[in-house]
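Morning. Coffee machine broken again, so started the prediction first thing and wrote up yesterday's gels while waiting. Chain of 228 residues, entered below exactly as on the submission form.
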Amino acid sequence: MPFQGLSTPIQFDRLPTPFFTELLPQIDHLGELKVTIYALWRLDRMEGEYRFLRKADFLADSCFLEGLADSPESAEAVLIESLARCVERGTLLQAEFPVRGEAITLYFFNSPKGRAAVDAIQNGSWRPLDDDAPVTIELLPERPTIYQLYEENIGPLSPLLAETLQDAEDQYPAQWIKEAFRIAVEKNVRNWRYVEAILRRWHERGYDARKDRRDTEKTRQEYADWEE
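Came back before lunch.
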């Protein structure tokens, strides 16, 4: 079936420039290419000084596996071969670490931090614990960012306002932000100061989106007072 086009606004992810200039020209195996890009995507979303993946982390993402083969068994076989190719090429570094009597293979990207992590495991200065296990991340549709919500519901975004929106995204839960924009649209008050006032009120008095959708002119005037 032909690709039908993106269903949501584009949110670009970061790939290091050397990937395109040094690594991509060398990769001639589709599975290896998919595993490499997926590993970069996941590792970029992780936190911590040392970031790693296990085979189980790849296998846990059904969407990713569907892109490797038609069946789970075939997909796992392609994954194993592709990981081996990544290690052979030197894109990924692997280190064995015993967990409850079983040797677990950890995969690191071949970067200064990845090499430092492997050295730290081998010389015993770092022991990955259960708390270091990667957080589950899947290839699911991205939630709208605050920038997308602003441009879709209010208008073009200026560089100065972008900093303000970033601060709000760091401060308030994503669900609050989405609901505040929805209320502003329902009440036909399409400006950021109104959305921000809703968020500040929830922060001070508690989150109650249903109440704010029911209130009309009284709530609008109260938010206007908050903006002053």
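Strands lie at 92-99, 102-109. Going to sketch it on the whiteboard this afternoon.
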